[in-house]
Protein: Dolichyl-diphosphooligosaccharide--protein glycosyltransferase subunit 2
Organism: Mycena sanguinolenta
Amino acid sequence: MLLLSGLLVLAATAQASVLTLHTPRVTTYNSAGEGIRTENLKLTEKPLHPMIEEGSTKGVQPLQTFLRFYDPETNEEGIQPLRVTPAGKSKFELNMAKPPLSIPPTTTSPLQVTLIIGSESHSPLKIELFDMTLPESQPAPQHPDEASFHLLPEIVHTFRSPQKVPPRPVSALFAGVALAPWAVLIALASLWSQVFPGVPHLFSLSILPFIASLGAFEVLLVWYWVELKLGDVLLYGGILGVATLFTGNTALASIGARRVGKTK
């Protein structure tokens, strides 16, 4: 087990109000807790103005202090807040037995460790401390249901091709065939009126309800083709069938009565 600690002392110049670090160092410990190496850090970013002379250094407690761990290979980063005492001292311990959540997933490339300090009365400070090499992260264990949450292939729906419409002359021809029985009925009714003048004509009050019921059947078939379902057609057809039976019986009775009166 490795234990990495750092002692950071913050100082400020009285004239320029620029934050800087005073004697930062890193100590590496072994699994027994014994320090095996201590190294003083050399700052890569120098303050804008000279530091305070030794003996007049006064610690400053900044408003915010963070350590940034950045992996340039994967662009992963982690931010670790640091606690700074009123005297300006801060200490961070890294125990690889229980690494903090701020450490990003590691690879074979080292992490760049940067110190970020912010204060209300001083200019902010960002200093690259060192590069740190950690053991490579192990892949996360696979959950038994992980395969169920993977991205599935996109569902591509092929819509049915548009319905083919026959040419207008063909449609007009079959429409004429469908209406031909009505033309035959009207022609026969006119001929019947001429042959038997006393027989009620097609549009008389006793015949017209029967003709209307036949026309209602034609409308029902068109309605079924456009919108209705088979059950609706059977229901409405049954009602129209009773009405057609009644009106047809009335029409035949009227014609029979006129025939009998004509014979007498």
